Amino acid sequence: MKTKLCLLFGGKSAEHEVSLQTAKAVIKALDMTKFEIDPVFISPEGDWRKGMPLEGPVEEVAALQFDAGQSVSATEGLQSTAIAAQDSAGSYDIIFPLLHGPNGEDGTVQGLLEVLNLPYVGNGVLASSAGMDKVIMKNLFKEAGLPQVNYVSFIRSTWENDRDAAYQKVEKDIDYPCFIKPANLGSSVGISKCSNRQELETGFEEAFLYDRKIIVEQGVKAREIEVGVLGNDYPEMSVPGEIVAKKDFYDYKAKYVDGDSVMIIPAELPEGVAEKLQNMAKTAFQAVDCSGLVRADFFLTDNNEIFINEINTMPGFTPYSMFPLLWENTGVSYSELIEKLVALGIERHAEKQKLKYTV
Fold first, then answer.
1. Phi and psi angles of residue 16, each rounded to the nearest 5 degrees, phi first
2. Residue 147: per-residue pLDDT
3. What is the DSSP letter of 57?
4. How many angstroms from the chain centroid is the CA of residue 159?
5. 0.85 exceeded by the pTM?
6. N or C: at which end does the chain have fewer Cβ atoms within 10 angstroms?
């Protein structure tokens, strides 16, 4: 019997287009002999559109957006998805949120699916929200004893009340160069590298366009190494891979537009470093209570000092993205990876059904 799968993609997020790339790749890779697939598109305005069941790959995901029927609100879309998911004749075995960034990767959609008691792929509410908020995430890493570069954070109102005090705090606690990032956004959107006060002020302005909270991190001369984590209670780690950016840092355009970066998998590392990275990735995964998948990103200095940078609870997921390539080089193909994630989501949902809700 086929697995009945609902794909959620698009989303009200600056990473909407990234989600469309992911959806197109996943649809192409899914084995139609194993899955019955319903696409649900979420517009940049937050409207939901449910498409007809897919019978094969699509050339352009955009075609689904406008052929998917009448546009409805998020509430109506959830209701229709819930009815389909809970109807005994056509229930979904699993929901696969192919959503990046806020309103999808940050625990919001996961919370709605939890309320509806629907099985879904990937991280739960806590891990998704904590993994999206770089400040909360780094605080959890600190509690777990993971080494990190120095960082400070600000909310917009504090900065607006006394901008000079914010800049002075950065210059007191952190040396130039530093990186300014929106706290709750992925795919390197809104990030600036700052080497002086003028660039710092511009970086604050840019980051606060995308979030009410930002983080400023100490720059470090290091290699960027990433490890994929796959599993629930007993996760497995991929071989490490390295990102070599041709620019100052691996920004949004380098990732998705210019292709202006090189991925080296497996990374060439000194003896023992790969194991340390994998152990730290596992610690980070468990510290944030993750499930399903995570990409853990690290800095490796010339003297082999390791700092964890961040985790991504819904990393780039096309066949050419780092996370799937890490697993391909570990022996798990893209199609197998998708099937493993579906199985892990079903497993996690079944585990939660054992909980007692009455006293």
1. -55, -50
2. 98
3. -
4. 28
5. yes
6. C
Q: Which residues of the chain have pLDDT under 50?
A: 65-69, 88-89, 250-258
> Looking at this protein, which amino acid is placed at residue 169?
K
Alpha helices in 133-162, H assignment, sequence order:
134-143, 156-161
With contact defined as beta carbons under 8 Å apart, do 287 and 272 qualify? no
**Number of other CB atoms surrounding residue 250 within 10 Å:** 19
Q: CA quadruple 311, 78, 23, 118: dihedral positive or negative?
A: positive
Residue 236 three-state SS: strand
Domains of the chain: 3-120 (3.40.50.20), 131-146+221-348 (3.30.470.20), 151-218 (3.30.1490.20)
b (16+ CB within 10 A) / e for 226-241: bbbbbbeeebebbbbb
Of 72, 122, 68, 55, residue with least CA distance to 94? 122
Integer Rg of the chain from CA: 21
Helices (H), 117-246: 125-132, 134-143, 156-161, 163-173, 197-207
CA distance 96 to 85: 12
For residues 25 and 319, the answer to whether their CB atoms sit within 8 Å is yes
Residues 6+ apart with CB under 8 A from 171: 197, 200
Q: Hey, what amino acid is at 67?
A: D
C-beta neighbour count of 89 within 10 angstroms: 5
Q: Which residues contact 308 (CB under 8 A, 6 or more apart)?
A: 141, 146, 147, 148, 280, 284, 296, 297, 298, 299
Q: How many Cα neighbours within 13 Å face the side chain of 179? A: 20
Token look-up 């094969």 returns 56
Q: Is residue 26 within 8 Å of 6, Cβ to Cβ?
A: no
